[in-house]
Amino acid sequence: MHSDEEYAKVAQRLSQWTALSSLALIAATWRLWTAQTIYPQVPVFHSLCNAPTWLDWLGLGGVLLGLLIVAFNNRVQFVQIGCATTMVSLLMLFSLDQHRFQPWAYELWLFCCIWLCCRDQLRISLMRWLLISIYFYSAIGKLDFEFLHTVAQQMLAVVLAGFGIELNDLSASFRLVLATTLPCIELMVAITVAWPKTRRIGGWLAIAVHLGLIIVLGPLGLNHRLGVLIWNLQVALQAYWLFVSDPRINPKTALEKPPFAWPQWIASAIIAAAIALPGTERLGLWDHWPSWALYAPHSSRVYLEVTGSPVDRLPPNLRKLVKESPIDAGGIAIWQTVRIDAWSLEALNTPIYPQARFQLGVAESIATDMNAGFQVRVTVLGAAARLTGKRRSFVYNGLTELSSATQPFWLNHRPRKQLKTP
């Protein structure tokens, strides 16, 4: 059994690494966390649509301060202060713009909750189960029609090219079989790290998966943004300390911290909820990213199209991303797709939040700024069915219909009013 000193050492390395790598992630996506005006913002609650911009700067300052305290101070009290500051500040930033609810930022918030409330043994146990749930739900989310026929094929093309094999040289059925192995490997990671006897093997497999993703998604492969690569590196080292170094948990002492045991039970309940709620994602009750639907294209989404002169009123950095589409059903107008997803990557260096609710707010902000009238069309697509890839759709023609959209969303879908697209 590991000593308390060994637990403390592993916990300290985990906290310092997570804080430092999170600072790197913020640096890689820094515009997202500021009071920026280059991309529409959609608050969590409608009452925040008129929130002042100084709240953004206050939240960012709090996160940076909290992470610096955790990264460079070993005293328990200071680490707890840093975690509390980071938690409160992240909640403020999330509330002001749903786009900031990045998977790594959500994991960071849960990490701070654990580190604030728990002892070293329980910290490691909860972090371990949280990471297991990420691997599990990420794998389950990819076992569907959309991933296997799209993103998985792109990843396979990169992997096979490394062996001098062209993807199109293989039969469609064999490509599908190979694509299925990708989420199956991830599922194998979740199972092996959950079982004590295979935990170290699973840990090394997890590290190999993350390093492989860095290669596939990096400059030599699909050339994804830096934040994606940093997060894979972050989780790879977390997996090493949690699974490969294998600090064993003593259940008799993990919850001992009299007379203040209640914070540990609160943290345990929060992590239990974070592990359970992704199971409701396909029912539309929990968002895709906090359900760890990573690289999973089955998420709900919005398509924005414009026609005629409003195209010229788009911001210059968005106008070049407009994609011409075929003649509409009436055979009269040429509709052009406004690629709000590509705009997010270019403007903020981060993927668009994969939720129709958020993207509807982005589309409304653009249409309002353009004063497009009836020369705008917005299609809202629900999540894709697991076996067929089919989606439900709703179409809004014109700014009036769009502004009066009454989709049954749990959270706000209106754009933040004082931050207009230039």
What does this structure look like?
A hairpin with a 6-residue loop joins strand 2 and strand 3. A five-stranded antiparallel sheet has the order 2-3-1-4-5. The protein is globular and about 70 Å long. By secondary structure, the protein is α+β, with helices and mostly antiparallel strands. 54% of the residues lie in helices and 6% in strands.
From the alpha carbons, calculate the radius of gyration and give it in angstroms: 23 Å
* Outline: globular
Report mean pLDDT, rounded to a whole number: 90
The count of strands amounts to: 5
Helix content: 40-55%
The end-to-end distance, rounded to whole angstroms, is 60 Å
The number of helical segments is: 15
List the helices and strands and how they pair.
Elements: H1 4-28, H2 54-72, H3 76-96, H4 103-117, H5 120-142, H6 145-149, H7 151-161, H8 172-194, H9 199-217, H10 226-244, H11 262-276, E1 301-306, H12 316-319, E2 323-327, E3 334-338, H13 340-348, H14 356-370, E4 376-381, E5 393-397, H15 398-403
Antiparallel strand pairs: 1-3, 1-4, 2-3, 4-5
Describe the structure concisely.
The chain is α+β, with helices and mostly antiparallel strands and 422 residues long.
Tags for this model:
422 residues; alpha+beta; 5 strands; 5-stranded antiparallel β-sheet; 54% helix; globular
